[in-house]
Fold these 2 entries.
Entry 1:
Amino acid sequence: MVSQDFRRQLEGYGLTTAEILYRLPDHPGLLQTYVWQDYDLAPEFPVLARFLAFWRRELAGPLHSVTVAHSRLIKPSEFRPVDGVFRLH
């Protein structure tokens, strides 16, 4: 049995981390940090977009900024040309 996360990686999803800065409802001069992490598709980030839509709709703390980092965990291998062949006896 293959995990759902592994299947998503094979479909092109990568690990996405978002640092969300938001203002506290009672103290709008203060910023709080929330770190969100899930598998998502770059560059559209539909999973993150749904989460941010939920945040705006349901939570009282208004968003200040979102910083996103993304990495595909399963990717094609890298090939490097060989400059020469060395034989050892």
Entry 2:
Amino acid sequence: MRARAVALATLASVSIVGIGWQLGSQAIDASHSLTASKSVSTTTVTAAADAAAQSGTFTGAVVQTQFGNMQVSVTIANGAITEVTPLQLTNRGGRSVAISNQAAPILRSEVLTAQTSTVQNVSGATYTTQGYLLSLQSALDTAGF
């Protein structure tokens, strides 16, 4: 009797594992098709967002850093970033001002080239870069860019 119970328990475990494997492979197949459809949807949404981007000048949020506030505005024309203007740069101490004054033109150039807020940090200006790019992204979001 005991041997029969062990055999049935083992058989049930194997059946459950088999069913789980089948369900798992179906879930994997489903996730692949979901991923593909998500990619298409994302592309469509991105293209629609680019087409719907407004033209004009948009002000980003004030971003607080440990060295002072950062704020930029962005000008968009015909779906392209044409200008990024710093409205506030970090200003706690002379070194902070010097770093911001050095980093801002580099960030502006990088953003204009990349046409996005996704650019690399300026070496030695991590806080300035992060504040600048967060404020820029805020302005781009407002513009629908």
